[in-house]
Structures are given as C-alpha cells and as structure tokens.
Amino acid sequence: MTASGPSPLALSLGDPAGVGPEIVAKAWLALKDRGPAFVVVGDGDLLARQGVPIERVSSMAEGARAFSGSLPVLDLPLDAPVEPGKPSAAHAPGIIRWIETAAALALSGEASGVVTAPIAKAPLYEAGFKFPGHTEFLADLTAHAPMGGAKSRERGPVMMLASGDLRTVLVTIHEPYARAPSLLTVDRIVHVALVTAEALERDFGVERPRLAVAGLNPHAGESGAIGREEVEIIAPAVAALRRRGIDAVGPKPADTLFHPEARQTYDAAVCMYHDQALIPVKMLDFWGGVNVTLGLPIVRVSPDHGTGFDVAGRGVARPDSLIAALRCAAAIAERRAT
Questions:
Q1: Are 22 and 317 in contact (CB under 8 A)?
Q2: Is residue 302 part of a domain?
Q3: Per-residue pLDDT band at 166 (split at 50, 70, 90)
Q4: Taking the alpha carbons of 8, 13, 19, 22 in that order, is the dihedral positive or negative?
Q5: One domain for residues 259 and 159
Q6: Does residue 312 form part of some domain?
Q7: What is the mean pLDDT of residues 46-69?
Q8: Residue 148 pLDDT grade (very low, low, confident, very high; cuts 50, 70, 90)
Q9: I need a surface site. Which of 81, 96, 249, 322 has the fewest CB within 10 A?
Q10: Strand order in 54-56's β-sheet?
C-alpha cells in the first residue's frame, strides 16, 4: 500500500478485554500483502502484545505506507490495565474515544471508512454511555454531515447483515420480542426499505434492487387468521413501496424465505425483528457474516459477532468475520468513490 492508493480504513479496536486485539492482529497477518489496508485506532501497547510488529503512526497516510511491514496504530492509550475476558467500565472512555476518532477520520476523508471491532454494552452503560450500541452512536456522530450523492435521500441507520448471497435488514433491532409488533408501522417499514434500496444501488452495485418483505406471524398471518399485522401494516407498506417504484414483494412467510432457491429472487430481505434476520445469516455462514450500517454519510462495517470474552486471551479467536468486514468496507468505499 502506498500513499497514492486508496485511503486506508480506520479500525476501532472495540472492547480491549475481548477478542478484538487478537482478531485485529490476525486480520493484519492475512491482509498485509494485498490489503485492504487499515489503521487501528486503539492502544498500541495492547496490540504490541499480540505477537505482530506494530508501528505507531500519526496519520492515516503514514499508516498506509507502513501497512505491508507492520500493523499501523494510531495510539490512544487506555488509562486502566486490561485483563482478557474481564470487561471494565474503566475502559469505556477509551473505547468511546476510539470510535469518535475513527468516525472523524472517515468524515474528514482521511479514512475511506470505519470498521469496528465488537464492544460490550454493559460496561459502557455503567460509565454513562447513552446509546444502545455502535450503530446509534455512529449515527449521532455523523448526523450533521451531508449524505452526498444525488440519489441519497433516505438517512439511516439501518442494520444489514450479509453473508454469502443473503442480505437481511431489520425493521426492529434490539427490542424484546413481545414489544416488536407494537413498533411496526407502515412508515417505519417503508423507511427501512427505501434506505436499503438506495444502499443496494449505491454501495453494492445493484442496478434495480429487489426486496422481499417478510411477514411477522406464522405463514405471514394466513390472510389475518393468525395475526393482523400483515393485513394492516406490512401489506400496505409493500404497496406504498411499489407506488414509489421499488420492486418489493410480500409479506412473505419467513419459513420459506431463506432457502437457496428463494434467495435468488431478491437482493435483500426486509425482516420484522432481530432473530428473523440474524438466524438465517448465521446459519448460512456463522464465521463470515458482516454487519453493515446503511444510510450513513460514512462507510461502516463490523464483524457479525460479539466480544468473545469467554475465549479472549486464549489465542483461539477466528478473524474470518473481521476480514470479511474489512473487505466489504473497502469494496463499498471504492464504489462510493467512483
């Protein structure tokens, strides 16, 4: 990687007591020869203990030049020691600073996008963090930045999970299952679908996106016999999308939406609740799935797994999803740049 090539990605280290430091080091070993290049925003001493050469850098350009020979780190040290597998609220200010710095680098154009290693919410909440997670925090950090692009009208954040030939997006995310139905509205479904269609075109190169909209109830409600949400909310949302020129079909029974033949009929499935979207992605490719935040003015991708406190520090964590996230972020950034 040279300074004349694409800007590197900014990789926020995530929870330092989790598998983040280990999988970041393993991802660098896998990508150092061919890229995509990234610069870690995190604690240099912590990364130096992962058994790979590191170089503390002062800019993304410097990191791009260093990438093939050492893991470049924009060093923002923690104020408290780290014990693998034991998260601490004392690390929260550092974790938050890393995310803020990575987002600022992407907003300035110094980084081509942001990739985030996993965080744990409980220690952040204990320290006063007011956002449900990464996605909402990054949306807030980028709220005043222009979206860019003549076709970018709908703003997220919308969570997409992608694995192989399957992409799913969520209408409700981290909500109790009992509460999810009450949060479904025609406007909410339409908004998520519009953000998704624009992102598929802009970020994934899909010329005419096809959306399959899942039902909420078994058998998509059986025409109202097993629930009214499909009749009163989801079907009207699909009709509204079609009036706006979106190739949307549904509501579709979720139990027949994800097999191989069905996946060939759409570019993304719009799902009503968390597990409806995540279970098929993780069944298809547990280690290779990624989480893409749609509808932001910056590129943001993360691995589709958590902090792995139970295996942190043991040397057994797999970097597959982080590597996939880095490659996905680089591909989206390249499309946005053309």
A1: yes
A2: no
A3: very high
A4: positive
A5: yes
A6: no
A7: 97
A8: confident
A9: 81
A10: 54-56, 71-75, 38-42, 9-12, 114-116, 300-303, 290-294, 158-163, 166-170, 268-271, 210-214, 247-252
Q: How many residues does the chain have?
A: 338
Parallel, antiparallel, or unpaired for β 114-116 and 300-303?
parallel
Cα separation of 111 and 8, whole Å?
A: 5
Tokens matching residue 315:
């040397």
pTM comes to: 0.94
Together in a domain, 286 and 324: no
**Per-residue pLDDT tens over the stretch 262-310:** 999 999 999 999 999 999 999 999 889 999 999 999 999 999 999 999 9
User: CA–CA distance from 11 to each of 20, 83, 222, 277 (Å)?
Assistant: 10, 21, 46, 25
Residue 131 included in any domain: yes
Residue 40, domain member (yes or no)? yes
Number of domains in the chain: 2
Share of the chain above pLDDT 70, in %: 97
The number of beta carbons lying within 10 Å of the beta carbon of residue 76 is 16
Residue range of the domain that includes 248: 150-296
